[in-house]
């Protein structure tokens, strides 16, 4: 029998890759910025739409990493 995922904690993902990038005030004049967003029970695309409206930026101004498949 297959156990279906039911709660948010069932969907935790640990990203594998290089070392964590360092983001600080010394990068304030850079063209690109990196932010880490941790969310729970929110749709990623809808959340990015809200952020783009809040900061008056195009949705295309935001990139996504760690976006996993639905299945």
Walk me through this protein's architecture.
The chain is mainly alpha-helical. The protein has a domain at 38-62. 15% of the residues lie in helices and 0% in strands. It is built from one helix and no strands. The protein has one helix at 44-54. The longest helix has 11 residues, at 44-54. It is elongated. The mean pLDDT is 74.
Summarize the structure.
By secondary structure, the chain is an all-alpha fold. The chain has a domain at 38-62.
**SSE sequence, one letter per element:** H
- Overall helicity: 10-25%
* Distance linking N and C termini: 17 Å
- SS content category: mainly alpha
Our count of helices gives 1
Q: Which whole number gives the mean pLDDT?
A: 74
Q: What Rg is obtained from the alpha carbons, in whole angstroms? A: 15 Å
Overall outline: elongated
The percent range for strand residues is under 5%
Question: Which terms would index this structure?
Answer:
single chain; mainly alpha; 71 residues; 1 helix; 15% helix; elongated
Task: Describe the protein's topology.
Elements: H1 44-54
